[in-house]
Amino acid sequence: MRALELVQVGLLTYFVVLNLIYSGLSFIGLRTVVVHARELSDLALRDLLEREVYRPVSILVPAFNEERTIVAAVRSFLALQYPRFEVIVVSDGSTDGTLERLIEAFALVEDPRVWSARLPTRPVRRVLRSLRHPELVVVDKENGGKSDALNAAINLARYPLIAPVDADSVLDAQAILRASRVFVEDETVLAVGGTVRPLNGATFRSGRPVSMRVPSGWLERFQIVEYARAFFLGRTGWTRLGTVLIISGAFGLFRRDAVVRVGGFWTGTVGEDMELVLRLHREYRRAGLPYRIVVAPDPICWTEVPSDLRTLLRQRSRWHRGLWQNLWRHRGMLLDPRYGRIGMLGLPYFWLFEALAPVVEVVGLVTFGISLALGVVDPGIFALFLAMAVLHGMLLSQIAVGVEAMLLERYPRISDRLRLLAAAFLEFLGFHQLLALDRFVATLRVLRGRGGWGAMRRAGIPTATS
Fold it and tell me: Is the dihedral of CA 404, 405, 409, 413 positive or negative?
């Protein structure tokens, strides 16, 4: 019994500390978003173009069996409001009609170009260019995985900034412009992450949502709340603290020379986005070079989120396994003063409150359940545990939804905003716990050395025809 009491006290202490950290990050992130929304205007962006201080960008699109989304996604990339860019699509050994759809939609022909293979990749079969869009290049190569495909695209990239983008995503027409301005304002910036938003329920035309509706499924609504909380409150807060460890693989902007300097994307992980950021931190800290890695709230990338539970659980399992892989690979940075805030603040947080959080949560629920059944738990302590685990999360979700729907005016209909507010309450009454259990199982799979990506069901990008 004494052991159960000690476990309960430890769990409560853990959740109190975790919620205090969440609260602090949320306050910092919310303040940053509000200030950003007030200060940045379309006039400032136009001034950036008129002064011609922008930097050309190579958009890198790895694609494996993406025939349902690839044409709409590439069209959104080609419609970007940016004076000089190229789009490099890499068909990474696709076995469906991905390459054929691209050839038909964009009139592709073989391009006998010669390029420098600075990063090793699986063999490239051929390079094609578009007769209709000179800025579009398509690479057909043997399958080597997402990281390998990105490295192949980097080898062909001509411009100083690269933007890895998922093939099932749609970039807002001003996304590159808004992200690239950070490099102009501060030459020490190595990477800028954007904000990823679910496209489910929206209709697009030329890279812009022309109709924003909350999707009908509660599973998708919960994910809208999750993404808003993660990007507007979490990652924006870490930017202010100078400890960004993740730039979403769906969309980010990097200095090409910095990525090549550290050896490109690592092919041995399912979380290549986080691993690259950690390697950049390690390299530039060791070299004693000034640098910054940031997440900006205004460059928007729209991505399709899973609409069925099986696909969602498979996705979250991959993400959590990737987190463990990357933390273990860079464990030497943990609590090492040479890496400053990264080693002393960012990595300890991710070890304790991201990687281990589902383990603690599942163990906590089981422990309190056993204690309740045995009658050895104080009802007040049990109520406090539930409040720490549920009510505080609901509050943060409500704040995130407020930023999404009201400050940024993503969903103009009152009915849609009410549905999101309801989702912010209901998310922690079963959905959150289910994901915690899934990530707990993913942790066990990591310990057993099991992994793999698995398939992702796509519904396709809804596009307006008129």
Answer: positive
Contacts of 333 (CB under 8 A, 6+ apart): 278, 281, 282, 339, 342, 343, 347
Domain span including residue 309? 1-54+202-243+297-453
Distance CA(399)–CA(406), nearest Å, equals 10
Question: Which residues lie below 8 Å from residue 73, measured CB to CB, with a gap of 6+?
Answer: 61, 66, 165, 167, 168, 169, 170, 461
What is the pLDDT confidence band of residue 171, given thresholds at 50, 70 and 90? confident
By DSSP bridging, strand 252-255 and strand 189-198 are antiparallel
Separation between Cα atoms, residue 337 and residue 194, nearest integer Å: 29
Nearest alpha carbon to residue 450 among 360, 327, 317, 310: 317
**Partners of 171 in beta bridges:** 301
- Give residues with Cβ within 8 angstroms of 304, minimum separation 6: 69, 168, 169, 198, 199, 200, 458, 459, 460, 461
Q: What are phi and psi of 59, to 5 degrees?
A: -90, 120
Q: Is 112 inside any structural domain? A: no
Give domain status of residue 350, yes or no. yes
- Number of Cβ within 10 Å of residue 119's Cβ equals 18
Flag whether 152 is in a domain.
no
Q: Say if residues 279 and 262 touch (Cβ distance below 8 Å).
A: yes
Render pLDDT for 298-311 as a digit per residue (tens, 0 to 9). 778 888 899 999 99
Question: How far apart, in whole angstroms, are the C-alpha atoms of residue 277 and residue 130?
Answer: 32
DSSP code for 165: B
SS3 388: helix
Question: What is the pTM (predicted TM-score) of this model?
Answer: 0.91
| Domains held by the chain: number | 1
Chain centroid to CA 164: how far?
A: 11
What single-letter DSSP state applies at residue 168? T
Is residue 124 in some structural domain? Answer: no
Mind listing the pLDDT tens digit for each residue in 71-85? Answer: 988 998 998 888 899
Q: How far is CA 464 from the centre of its chain?
A: 26
In whole angstroms, give the CA distance from residue 142 to residue 248. 25
